[in-house]
Write a structure and sequence with these properties.
Elements lengths: L30 E3 L3 E2 L5 E4 L6 E5 L2 E6 L2 E5 L5 E8 L2 E7 L12 E4 L7 E4 L9 E3 L6 E5 L9 E5 L7 E2 L10 E6 L7 E5 L2 E5 L7 E2 L6 E6 L3 E8 L2 E8 L5 E4 L11 E7 L2 E9 L4 E4 L7 E4 L3 E2 L1
Antiparallel strand pairs: 1-6, 2-27, 3-4, 4-5, 5-6, 7-8, 8-9, 9-10, 11-12, 12-13, 13-14, 15-16, 16-17, 17-18, 19-20, 20-21, 21-22, 23-24, 24-25, 25-26
């Protein structure tokens, strides 16, 4: 058995490893420009659909960055966990906003209209999946189930039909005691990566067998592109952002802002599916940086979680 729980500053977690509900929706309004507010407890980010719009999942609902402005959703301010963007919306889990008539936790839900409505898929009122990974095009969903529910024991599972059926991954070759994040390849539904305290683990058979494809150092987070992976590693307390080819396994070190350190590591990475040179990262202190040239130059979008 492998234990998962939050540990240390680098957000390495330990979770003990080892249905379906109705399809009701809940509607909301649109987004409003926000200024002079502080964003806290960011649980994920990504470019929803094929738009040049970046979405953050926060403790108080979705926030969008587009046209150099920040917008916040006006209703359905749910505390989304395991937030995963896809080409036609997003999948998530988490908790409903205060005062909502939705059950807590949300289970597995999805939205195809940027959070204007949500559809319940599985384990509604039963399970909060903190760690989900979804293929941007394939829509294969991987989930770490931290505690047994009505259908699943603890462990890593995947579904190809939005939670109607689940298969448990064998996780052979996985020996890390703690993990940071999980990610799925955008098109290859059998490929999943896990960042851990012992390096980056990769599987090409739905998590049945894993192997380490990075140096044996702590890796806090990762993201798949079509032919490569982005991941953040701590080499002797020296923070590094890498881009690694999926076939040749060649690594390229990308430059990062000086403010990203071992005390302020990258927690989430997202790149724009329409332009993979555009990369956005979020740090432990809720600093958000973005590059348009694959790490050549960076600009600050948010400092200490504060929207100006």
């Amino acid at each position: 058995m492998i234990n998962f729980k939050w540990i240390a500053l680098v957000t390495l977690i330990s979770v003990i490893l080892a249905a379906c509900s109705g399809n009701e929706t809940q509607s909301t309004k649109t987004y409003e420009v926000v200024k002079d507010v502080k964003i806290e407890h960011i649980h994920g980010l990504g470019y929803v659909g094929n738009k040049n719009e970046l979405y953050l999942a926060t403790h108080d609902g979705l926030v969008r960055y587009s046209d150099n402005k920040w917008y916040a959703i006006t209703k359905n301010n749910h505390d989304y966990m395991g937030f995963q963007v896809v080409d036609k919306g997003f999948y998530s889990s988490g908790h409903p906003e205060h005062g909502s008539d939705l059950k807590n936790p949300l289970g597995l839900v999805k939205s195809t209209d940027e959070g204007e409505s949500i559809k319940k898929l599985a384990f509604y009122g039963e399970t909060d999946f903190h760690y989900l990974a979804t293929g941007f095009i394939s829509h294969t969903i991987y989930a770490i189930n931290e505690a047994p529910n009505s259908l699943l024991d603890s462990g890593l599972y995947y579904t190809d039909d939005e939670g109607k059926t689940w298969t448990q991954s064998k996780m052979q070759g996985f020996s890390a005691s703690s993990i940071g994040n999980i990610a799925a390849h955008p098109t290859e539904s059998n490929m999943i990566g896990i960042s851990t305290d012992k390096g980056l683990y990769l599987s090409d058979n739905n998590g049945d067998q894993f192997k380490v494809v990075s140096q044996a150092v702590p890796v806090t987070t990762l993201e798949f592109q079509e032919d490569s992976m982005l991941y953040f590693a701590m080499n002797d307390n020296s923070p590094e952002l890498y881009k690694q080819d999926l076939v040749a396994q060649n690594m390229t070190k990308l430059s990062i802002p000086n403010q990203i350190t071992s005390q302020n590591p990258i927690m989430f990475i997202a790149s724009n599916p329409k332009n993979r040179d555009e990369i956005t990262v979020i740090t432990h202190k809720n600093d958000i940086y973005q590059t348009q040239d694959n790490g050549g130059t960076w600009k600050v979008l948010i400092k200490d979680g504060k929207v100006q």
